[in-house]
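Changelog-adjacent note: as of this version, every example in the card shows the full chain rather than a window. The one below runs 276 residues end to end.
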Amino acid sequence: MKKIKIGACDWGLPGAGLYAARIAASAGLDALSLRIGLYENDYPLTWPQMQKIYLDEQQKYGVEYCAIALNDFDNIPMHAPRGTAEYDIVWDLLRRSVETAKALGVSVIQVPGFAASEIKSREDLSNSAAAFRYLCAAAGEYGIDVAAENLMNRDEFEEFYDCVGMENFYLYFDSQNYHLFRGMRETEILEGLYHRMCSQLHVKDGREAMSGSLLGAGDSGFFDTMKWLAGHNYTGYILLENYYDQLPLRSAGKSPFDLLEEDVRILKETVKKYFE
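Full-length structure tokens:
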């Protein structure tokens, strides 16, 4: 098995996930993280018919599915109080996500904690922790890990980790978010929380904008982050999360496919330099 597997988030690829397995294979990627979809579309990835299509594509193109992302928690608060319409949506999604992860053979359910699901109060923390405890317990029955992606610093995440209190609960690290949204060094988060990380992470870059530049051309310290991880013997998946068909990245004047190809080249060269 490779020490490092290189992949992408399907929502960042040209076409925002359409033909993701084919595109990933043609770009020389090993793996994909798949978004589960939106409530307004009844979470398409949870349908058995859609799962069959994805599994057929996997067999055809040989790309591993390493995670599913519960992306709708950007829009629907994971910490919605009991008795609200949002609460019912959240808990239905949690249940369906475990069956989806099992069906697709992924190793991690990735849960974003931004926008609507950002924790801003003690009630939010308590409600979110309860949701994570359920998800960890249900996913753990199948050997699946659960990882939270958020903007918490070391002390904040350690408190949250203790509140969840599950062995298969982890941090999902991102190489730009902490710097962009909280002004922190990415390596500062690694220094404090590396021991809580799952074996997957997102990489993107930019200058004062999310996904505004190819890897290493922004101000997030991408190469420092990769060097730090290699120096601490990181093994696992490094997943591209630049948005190749969206502004501001596409303003570089190249096609989304050219941008993807260039980012893959940069990432592979970086892995070879630091990890091999």
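Structural remarks: The chain has a mean pLDDT of 97.
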